[in-house]
Amino acid sequence: MIPSHAPNSVLNSAMKHAALWVILLSMPVRSANLPISARPVPSAQLADNPEVRSSLAWFARNLAAINEQQIRLTEIPAPPFQESQRAAAIKTLLASSGLEVQIDNTGNVIGELRGATEKEIVVLSAHLDTVFPPSTEVKVRHEGARLLAPGISDNGTGLASLVAIARACHEAHIKPRRTILFVADVGEEGEGNLRGMRALIDAYKPKLKAVIVLDGSGTDHVTTKALASRRVEATITGPGGHSWSDFGMPNPINALVRASVRFINTRVPVAPRTTFNLGQIEGGTSVNSIPYEAKLKVDIRSESEDELAKLELALRECIAAGVRDEMESARDRSKGKLDWKVELLGSRPGGELHANSPLLAALRAADEYVGNQSRIERSSTDANVPLSNGIDAISIGAGGIGGGAHSLNEWYEPTGREMGLKRALLTLLGVSGLAEEQAR
Ligand SMILES: [Zn+2]
What we know:
Oligomer: single chain
Strand content: 15-25%
Number of strands: 19
Distance between the termini: 38 Å
Structural class: alpha+beta
Order of helices and strands: HHHHEEEEEHEHEEEEHEEEHEEHEHEEEH
Largest sheet: 9 strands, mixed
Number of helices: 11
Bound molecules: zinc ion
């Protein structure tokens, strides 16, 4: 379960603000090894500030509307590479919160809340795409407090929260010091290969000071370590033929099975944690045909780039060996031979947030303020891209509880959503700071 207790209501608000004041002051502001531009803004005024208070209070009054928004967004299909319909809906919502909104060439929706300076930018993002193909039923079902639909949590929660946080800032007339970009990005899942976030980092890298990724539900973790991964596709091809008359001819599916058995017997270390998954296999045209093609998609992940490279090499060797075995055992090699190739479908870079990063300090201060505890996690998210570029980034859940991500039984429950929203907003404002006229 996720701790979701609200701050002690007996504490009067002045004391709570004083508490955050102290926490934010204790952030490593003067850390000598931080360049000047990376210093967190003096956030002492943050929670003591009437606009911030008003933005935080907006959530409690609008929880039902946020649930409705999440349902509406989830019911707009957003299969990989087909996010544009959902993007258009987000664009409208962000524009209605007073943001200047554009959709970039990659398909990312970018809503700008101009800060006192445009030379420094912080990003709050949530990915638009789901893992589900276009034919998937995405109508949201209700079971008590629970909402069920593919993508309801990942990333219905992130998107609904992105929009809600933009709205809360707008309603409360928040004017940040650094410019905030509210981004709904494409291509986070699978073969999207983080293309939305890659384009965003390419475009804004010199000005970008921090990226906060809202991904899924919960408030129990903060991803500061980017898990490196590779997605690989092996293809084996041959002449193909008739199951009876051409029996003995080399068979690509046989070769792929031989190769797969070799590969799944590969030993991977427990530490550094290294994993692989044979996720998709296809080939053949009918039961009585020797296929001319067989394909296999494999996902490999590791805490170590070295192990990742080793495992990819092992896969290549196993495919080569599987093809060799099949050729050697083929009775009839006169009708052709097997060919194979292994292609990289995607590669996600690793990286890690510095332990004394101002962004992590802001998250910790927000956690403290809302009475939350979260553990550091390593995972593969949009934050991989900024982290691998040396830009401060985290990925967090956007509140509430959820489960069954990437399955047809995915669910979400809004219990504790308000805390998640406050946590995200305070972290965001912790790194954006407030414009001077508001920082009083
Ligand atoms: Zn996600």
